């Protein structure tokens, strides 16, 4: 039996069409906390120059710089686990919609 790649796309489209669309009010505090975690994770990068200029042992500087460098990834993992699938899908959907609108305005 030979399956065409288009068959796979149709199955995915059907599965995604059945998902419920949640609003921010329905998702609640988990969405807000997860969003704050993601944003704060990227703020940790601004602490790397402070650590480099601090009067610390080189091994401590390396450890702290590595930790602050990995913080965005780690906070995203924690945020997605905290949010759950509906809240993460909502965040992803609203971000993509915003970027599409911004790209449409930039082309005009």
Question: How do the helices and strands line up, and which of them pair or pack?
Answer:
Layout: H1 5-17, H2 24-27, H3 29-43, H4 48-53, H5 58-83, H6 85-107
Helix pairs in contact: 3-5
Helix content: over 70%
* Shape, per Cα inertia axes: flat
Number of helices: 6
Q: What pattern of helices and strands is seen along the backbone?
A: HHHHHH
Q: Give the uncertain stretches in residue-range form.
A: 11-15
**Radius of gyration, in angstroms, nearest whole number:** 20 Å
Tell me the number of strands. 0
Separation of the first and last Cα atoms: 48 Å
Secondary-structure-derived class = mainly alpha
Name the average pLDDT: 79
Number of domains: 1
Largest sheet: number of strands, sense, barrel closure: none
Strand content: under 5%
Structural description of this entry:
- By secondary structure, the chain is mostly helical.
- It has one domain (26-107).
- The protein has helices spanning 5-17, 24-27, 29-43, 48-53, 58-83, 85-107.
- Mean pLDDT is 79; it is low at 11-15.
Keyword list:
single chain; 108 residues; mainly alpha
Quick synopsis:
With 108 residues, the protein is an all-alpha fold. It has helices at residues 5-17, 24-27, 29-43, 48-53, 58-83, 85-107. The chain has one domain (26-107).
């Amino acid at each position: 039996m030979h399956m065409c790649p288009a068959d796979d796309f149709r199955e995915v489209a059907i599965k995604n069409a059945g998902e419920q669309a949640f609003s921010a009010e329905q998702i609640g505090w988990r969405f807000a906390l997860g969003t704050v975690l993601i944003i704060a994770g990227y703020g940790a990068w601004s602490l790397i120059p402070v650590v480099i200029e601090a009067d610390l042992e080189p091994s401590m500087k390396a450890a702290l710089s590595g930790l602050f460098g990995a913080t965005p990834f780690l906070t995203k993992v924690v945020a997605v686990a905290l949010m759950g699938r509906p809240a993460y899908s909502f965040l992803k959907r609203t971000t993509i919609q915003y970027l599409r609108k911004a790209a449409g305005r930039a082309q005009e």
